[in-house]
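Work through what follows:
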Amino acid sequence: MKLAEREKAIELRTNGFSYNDIADQVCVSKGSLSRWLINIPFVPSEKVIERRRLSRIRSGQILHNRKIARTNCIQNNAAEEIGPLAFKELKLIGAVAYWTEGSKTNDSLVKFTNSDPEFIKFVLKW
């Protein structure tokens, strides 16, 4: 058995190192670490806590960037597929927009309730 590696792994775990850090330093599998360190509680070190925090931030940024890229792709494809709107089409879409987002009061004013900047631009164009 790798007694020196096991002792080093126990020391590192006691100091708050993660399995990944220990596996890199001791050169043993995580399965071995799991068996060796089963009774040693994990109290993460400041380094591990900071790395996890930064990892969550990076992961969120990556997902956000993917979502933006996907949304832009969908919008570009839709714009290419639809092309420019004729006056009649613009009137029809505006009527549907008013039907769904417009105010239906008896004050003879056309009112829309929506905070989406693209929708507001459309209503102004309409």
